[in-house]
Amino acid sequence: MKIDKALIDYLEELSCLSLSEEEKIRLTGDLESILAAMDKLNELDTVGFQERNHPFDGVNSFREDIVLPSLERELVLQNAPQRNAEAFVVPKTVE
Amino acid sequence: MKGYEVVMGLEVHAELSTKTKIFCACANKFGGAPNTHVCPVCTAMPGALPVFNRRVLEYAVRLGLALNCDITRCSKFDRKNYFYPDLPAAYQISQLYAPICKNGCMEIALEDGGTKTIGIHQIHMEADAGKLIHDPANEQTYVDYNRSCVPLLEIVSEPDFSSAAQVIAYLTKLRETLLYLGICDCKMQEGSIRADVNLSVRRPGEALGVRAEMKNLNSFKAIARAIEYEAARQIEVLEKGGTLVQETRRWDDNKGRSYPMRSKENANDYRYFPEPDLLPMQIDDQWIEGIRGSLPELAHEKRARYIKDFGLSEFEAGIITAHKNISDLFEEIARQSGQALESARLVTGEIMRMMNNTGILPEDLSLDAGKLAYLVKLVIEGKINRNSYKDALNAVFTRNVQPADYVKEKGYIIVNDTNAVAQAIEAVIAENPNAVTDYKSGIQKAFGFLMGQVMQKLKGAGNPGAVKAALTEVLGS
Ligand SMILES: [Zn+2]
Fold it and tell me: How many domains does chain A have?
């Protein structure tokens, strides 16, 4: 897959990022080498192997519907970059 | 519609009424102070891992069976990626590749008396997002994650609807089904059931048109209005020679129009991939059959039973089964009073009237069935008359009085005591010799007067039939 400027611009928008031109050039190179590494996997011969749903073998790892205490609010908000007494605060995002 | 037909599909989100959230043990409760039902999982703190709530799977299968779906034997979760502050992980755990239920259907009643089968494309399980509260005063948005990871079922229909009435009929029946299954409280005003409508228009026989997805539809009325508006808007664009773009539009019910949502412009690129943090679900026949066996009686089954076993009219049965709270109340009154027909009359009459007058919604109705059953028995046994009955019902509705004390205080109990009646008649005759003479000389009016006097002596508690017979007898002798 070719990483071009249009794709980088699109990914930038999808990811809600704001990238400088230098960063875009660097990312183009990074993403190309990441994809090249992934393409390497496609060289593996997988004939005769069944497709798997998950890397692990288990199924049905469930929890019963029983309430446990939640985290104290002060701890929840402790590391928030911006907050008030009861909530995380973010720039205007509601349409 | 100027030679166009409307094609619609529905995506309904139903919040499940489990005790805990889908992937963590926080309480699943509406309301509550902001960010008090949250933990590292539902706020997506680094390293926190989801653990799936078994009951969510059970509820999904319940609905799937009720809607005639195929249950997926090996179901799994996928990640849906998007960036928005209501989604702390920047992905929603949902299902794309192997949703729990597929290929279902629901039959709806049409206005012309016929029926139509609406296809259910799939039902999948997912986690709800948090809530954003915008403060216009300082242009900031507050984020409350109490709703984050609340379990949702998304019910995706086929594009089988061609009118607003069909959409409403489907939603009404779906809500009824969710309520009867006991898996969602369906409070639209609290957002526990939300519907998005996909709508396109086309000339009959043509390929499907470009669709718009409408969001923020908060009531059945808003849904009907939004559909009318959007169909008219699309037809107008086409008639003017314009082209439509696929978009998401937000309905503004106050203004009666919709607006494109810019934040959803690239909404279809969610970069789904299999969720690595959760293992697949392997579902066997025995488990499914266990759930099938425990499915409660659904509304249409109740309707048929009420008509057959209790002799209710189709109309009465329809009103009573429209909401599970109402049918539960009816069954309890009927059981305790042993009077199904009179109980149905009470529910479809006085109770409906009271709800209309006070604006109480079926989901918020809480009446003491035992008290109502007590009054039903009194009126059926002729111990109180219809007027007293209505007044006592009203006192139960408004002040939740003890009916036994209330009817006693009010002197509503009809006196069948022949002694008391005879004494009252004797006294009235002694006090009104003129009226007695009038009656005996053929003036019929006098009888009414004497009758009234006797009833007054009995404080309105006389059984009119019995009093009339006794008075006639005494006067005739
Ligand atoms: Zn949690």
Answer: 1
Residue A56 lies in a domain: no
First to last CA, chain A: 36
Min Cα distance B50 → chain A (Å) is 10
The CA distance from B433 to B453, in Å, is 13
pLDDT digits (tens, 9 = 90+) for B347-366: 999 999 999 999 888 888 88
ipTM for the complex?
A: 0.87
Chain A to chain B Cβ contacts (< 8 Å): 132
8 Å CB contact between B26 and A67: yes
CATH of residue A31's domain is: 1.10.20
pLDDT at B113: 83
pLDDT at B1 over 70: no
SS3 for B410? coil
Strand order from edge to edge, sheet including B140-144? A88-91, B140-144, B131-135
Q: Which domains does chain B have, with CATH numbers?
A: 5-287 (no CATH), 297-409 (no CATH), 418-476 (1.10.10.410)
The CA distance from A56 to the nearest CA of chain B, in Å, is 8
Q: Please give the structure tokens belonging to residue B161.
A: 């609807």
CA B130 – CA B342 distance, rounded (Å)? 47
Q: Is B18 within 8 Å of A73 when comparing Cβ atoms?
A: no
pLDDT (tens digit per residue) in B270-315: 889 999 999 999 999 999 999 999 998 888 889 999 999 999 998 8
pTM of the model: 0.79
Longest dimension (CA), chain A: 58
Residue B381 pLDDT greater than 60, yes or no:
yes
User: Is the Cβ–Cβ distance between B55 and B18 less than 8 Å?
Assistant: yes
Residues of A in contact with B57 (CB under 8 A): 62
